[in-house]
Amino acid sequence: MAKSKAPAQTFKEPEYLKQLVTASTLVRVTLIDDEEFEGTIEYWDAGFLRLTRHNGANLFIFKHDIKYIAELGDE
Question: Phi/psi at 13 (nearest 5 deg)?
Fold first, then answer.
């Protein structure tokens, strides 16, 4: 019996981002160059997201520049 391959796309990203926006979850966005920004995601589309920060200007970040997003919870 042949093993099935994992799908390249799960299409869960919009669902997850909507959850983060709705709950105003504090996140840390780490870019591919390891630069980090903290805030809440206010908006997203296919190419970028808007990060609302409390300690600086709001940012528009291209998704292709993001290494990962980590939830910070109640830090």
Answer: -55, -50
Dihedrals φ, ψ of 30, to 5°?
-105, 125
- Residue 63 is part of which domain span? 13-71
Q: What is the pLDDT of residues 1-26, one digit of tens each?
A: 667 787 777 788 889 999 999 999 99
Q: Tokens 């019996």 identify what position?
A: 1
pLDDT class of 74 with cuts at 50, 70, 90: low
Residue 66 counted as domain residue: yes
Rg (C-alpha) for the chain, rounded Å, is: 14
